[in-house]
Amino acid sequence: METVIITDSCCDLPIEFIEKHNIDVMSIRVNFCGQDIPDDLGKTLKHKKFYDEIRKGEMPSTAQVNAFTFESAFRKHVESGKSVIYVGFSSALSGCINSAKIAKEIICEENKNADITIIDSKSASLGLGLIVYYLCELIESGISKEEAVNWVVNNKLKVNHWFTVDDLNHLKRGGRVSAAAAAFGTVLNIKPILHVDNEGRLIPLLKVKGRKKSIKVLAEKIKEKIIDPENQVVFISHGDCIEEANHLKDIIMNEIKVKDIIINNIGPAVGSHSGPGTIALFFIGENRNI
């Protein structure tokens, strides 16, 4: 039975990769400049325009994919005789996983032979993208769906996420820092370092002074925690700050021998909450423990 991979637009994978590998992407909805727009990895809403408007004061909001939309997507593939794997944005940050479970239950009540697997990635942005990338490789290598799913389940909590943001006020809006901390940090040029824990939650860990130092800390974290780097593809996502993302890539390439580094934009689904200037680094370590 052919296996179809479905994810959501929080994966922040390059659209070229998605199209090449026929991955279905469920679009998070973004309320932006008074319009309801799908986050479809930059096709409808260009990343540059999105971040430019935020810099001018626009405050977008997001809405999870509803159960009906998941049901339609799952049903299409099940009725075509295909098996489905949906790997979704962390359930601690979004309700998409719950919507998908409701849709699966509806379909499986009607069709006992429906083969739908739902995986809570406990990951965000290109951390989710990294998991989808490797899952795609596994499925295309010809191994069984069960083996591929087991790999994801056994390795998803090894996917390290290290973030820094340029503007604390976006984290304040999302409840990640207090208003006082945001104001104080902005005055002192404090840049937080955050990671995603085993529950899939975004957790502030460190505070450093200045942008250069925050990027240096990300590079230090990968040197400290990456395993088997020669066989790893490392991922960097950014909120319209490609020069600094490339700078981080150069530091890593000069100090660690990795298989490859993929850089891509943080899309509106995540960028609505992290803001312009966010840089995020993703790789596989022994675990996510700090």
Oligomer: single chain
For the biggest sheet, the summary is: 6 strands, mixed
> What average pLDDT do the residues reach?
92
Which strand order does the major sheet show?
10-9-8-13-11-12
Termini, distance in Å?
A: 41 Å
SS element count, helices: 11
Coarse shape:
globular
User: Which regions are unreliable across 5 or more consecutive residues at pLDDT < 50?
Assistant: 180-188
- What's the total number of strands? 13
Structural commentary:
The protein is an alpha/beta fold and 290 residues long. The protein has 11 helices and 13 strands. It has helices at 15-20, 47-55, 67-79, 96-110, 126-141, 145-155, 168-173, 179-187, 211-225, 242-255, 268-274, and strands spanning 3-8, 24-26, 29-32, 35-38, 61-63, 83-88, 116-120, 159-164, 190-196, 202-209, 233-238, 260-265, 279-284. It has a 6-stranded mixed sheet, sandwiched between helices. Strands 2-1-6-7 form a 4-stranded parallel sheet, with helices on both faces. Helix 4 links the parallel strand 6 (83-88) and strand 7. The longest helix has 16 residues, at 126-141. It is globular and about 55 Å long. Mean pLDDT is 92; it is low at 180-188.
